[in-house]
What does this fold into?
Amino acid sequence: MAADTKRVTTHRLLEMKRNGERIVCLTAYDALFADLLDQSGVDVLLVGDSVNMVLAGQETTLSATLEQMVYHASTVVRGVRRAMVVIDMPFLSYQVSIEEARRNCGRALQLSGAHAVKVEGGAHMAATVRALVDIGIPVMGHVGMTPQSVHALGGYRVQGRDEATAERILADAKALEDAGVFGMVLELIPADLAEKVSTSLTVPTIGIGSGAHCDGQVLVLHDMLGLNERFKPKFVKRYADLADAVKKAVRAYGDDVRSGTYPDTNHSF
It folds into this structure.
């Protein structure tokens, strides 16, 4: 069967949910990896503010800037032909006021070429989401463990274990759907709650640490490739061990340079 080369759109994601087709999502921060992921059939590339931790070495996502996100999203866009590119809106770029949210989200799409934005938060963000959707900005929601609220939530912890919190997460998800999101990330919530949320919505859910019953899954690329040796949460399956491969290659290069065997005649003009 020929590979699907049509651009993934919000309508395509809704169709995938209706048809029971699982959505494949990964983070991407640069054109090279974006191209490789696109060629490999990934449906959605999320330019996550996790770049602030993964590549910039910060402890949280909170210090990510709009300029930083636009830069990385614009490079990712240049690497794809099929996948949808979603840009994470950084902390304080959309929470202060609806007017600021419209301006910043619009500029993010305008300057990066990304296809949609992602914002964190539940029912309290519904009016902002509606205002963005009303001016033609596609919005992906994000409930459960919301990293921009890491301090308020007491760290990176599973959310929704008790009945009251689970009910709030479900209400948040429905409020976002009513506000017009085309999909949403469910992060670090129990699998049974994620299943309940997913079956309650008509828009697709993308899980991370939320079990197998979401409509799709997302992981941080560097985690699933085994490049990030310091981060080993329970929900991440490592599909490669590239950290060891990189160190082995660099050591071999160093040995060749020190011994004078590189460059040899085959690698010289």
